[in-house]
Amino acid sequence: MDKFYQRVPKRPFDSSSSSNSINEVISDEQDPPSDPAQRKPILDYNPNERDRIRRYYLIEGHGPCQPHNHVFPQRNFSGAMRRFNPSWFGLHKVWLEYSIEKDAAFCLCCYLFRPENLGSGGGTNFVGEGFRNWKKATKSFEEHVGDSLSWHNQARKKCLDLMNQAQSIRAVVNKQTVRQERDYRMQLGAIVDCVKFLCRQGLAFRGHDESESSFNEGNFRELLRFLGDHNEEIDKVIFDKAPQNLKLIAPEIQKDIVNACAEETTKDIIAELGDELFSVLIDEARDASTKEQMAVVIRFVNKSGSVVERFLGIVHVSDTTALCLKAALENLFGKHGLSLSRLRGQGYDGASNMSGEFNGLKALIMNENESAYYVHCFAHQLQLTLVAVANNHAQVGLFFQMVARLLNVTGGSCKRRDQLRDEARINVVEAISSEEIVTGSGLNQESSLARAGDTRWSSHFNTLNSLVVLFSPTFRVIEQIEMDGSTWQQRSEARGLRREIQNFEFVFVLLLMRDTLIITHNLSQTLQCKSQDMVNAIRLVNIAKQRLQHMRDSGWELLLKKVCAFCEKHSIKVPSMEEEYFDNPRYQTGTTNLHYYRVDLFNTVIDMQLKELNDRFNETNTQLLICMSCLDPRNSFSAFDIEKLVQLAQFYPSDFNQFELPILNSQLENYILDVQDDRVFLEVSTILELSEKMVKTNRHNAHPLVYKLVKLGLILPVATASVERAFSAMNIVKTSMRSRMGDQWMNDCLITFIEKDLFKRVSNERIMERFQNMKARRGILI
10 Å Cβ neighbour count for 532? Predict the structure, then answer.
């Protein structure tokens, strides 16, 4: 064999080339870039993929890249400053595109169908490098379009032919009858109904075995079969009664329909946003397959004056550096026609790659848009306040360590959890029989010890509150483990815990931390409301500080009374406050119990809480928020200050130019006289209520610049709770049993699941039309 064929030496394995090829495959499966400057030539795609790419750009909702709200930069043309005019989009809606990256205009139709060797009809400016001569834009656009036989119009006609399935070769050859068209519409409509139901519930589609003889076909097939069993017309057009090559039950079809649902829902979100300014909330988390995901939520004021937070999407980021996060955010914004120049706020959880002063995502965005002010999530700061106190106070830190051990011992097995539930049930029955607690609907439900976590807001309060309620059942379970533990380690650990929780100091710290945390817990729950505004959030933080200070000044006697009553109820010895405190029986401390518990614990813990709150919520000292507080409508607009509100407008130079500032001053004078004389505004207490009242009474048109200030105050983010809710939804949609979900598949399911209120209003007709336009289908939807 070697005589006729020469052996080719084996080449060494090149990991870089292998990784590059893998990356190319992965990138081909992802959505093509929206910015025209980032696209590769259409002829560089595989011939079998070109129609898919063309349909992606032509389908309604994607279409030409036309960022209407972008702040277009100016350039010097022969001594005159000129820029791209967004009104050109309206004149050339079908084909004109704009690249934010290159500040240049492109033609979508010529990009999709222009021959490679074409050099006439406007040159290659609208396809290759882009057109940037804004001085001659109008004339150049007309020359590019040309007459009916121009290359541009020929490319435009090919775009129309591609999207017109009724005139395709396949449709002409396989001409459907009227009945077949009706059956196909009914079949597709039934399948869309099933997909919409599963998306809204966050349920899995596929089953373990989808064969016809299987008893576990999966939710999609089971639901479709159930629908057919209860509707004779539908039963005639699904499964075996449908054409063999048009059953529409394959996983690819399901994914296409879900993608159509998600795209239509996102389209409604962008339509709801309109031309409004907005802020962005971002966080990162790992999914069930240990992939880093970045969730993006936008916050804006809708047409009725209400604050809205909408989930825009989730993006897989292989690298969590600030540059990669910014690139992923820009790509997502470009896909939906949004621009970073319209940002007026950023909300993160304080991670260094997000909020870094020099190289964080916050800094990178503010380098391009100085009005995109950053706000550290308020609810996260409250959690950090508790963690700081627990780490810096010795007794509090030891207390939380002991609580963690207690939870591990009592919840270490199913048997112990059942014992705790049984003891709690006995405790409730005894309390009801002695009339200590009342009965009623929803009362005295089964409960267990909640586990705290530093990354779960307000979880420490839930832990301490459950421990107070279940103290006796927990103590009895510890005693039982001490007697019946399977190993001597379990028995000795239970014995040590029993002695510790029977200590007066443990009970004192337990009730002290519960009473202080209930203040910040209520604040945290309030701050996580989507409609919360920054001015009201600052006011709530100040109220929490006042409550803590009041507790320090006059709450000692009440707390001591609670602790003594708790100890008496559970047979715990109460030491005399006048006696000397002994931390260790072998050493004398020289202080009394009163001094230790009141000064070293009570006063010190509250002082540390107050100090941390003052340090972490330093936004109250910034001039921006001081000016914004003048919008507060409480007490008949007593905080209103024209000078500071004009100064607030100067923080947003892109929204208030030098000609509008004098007009704003006059509008503010008219506005305050108008609203103070109207009884409708007397009961308004928040900026949100003020915004809604202004829209309802048409004051937003009478005082447009003032209303713009109100909206800027509302869109500044307070907490990233909506992003956290998105991650909770991600854990429902993508579980360990469904860990192989692709990124696009998961993103589509999340959008329809999280924004189900908008998704419910999306009609089946819109979904079916988008589904048909995605690719050439065997069935024609007329």
Answer: 22
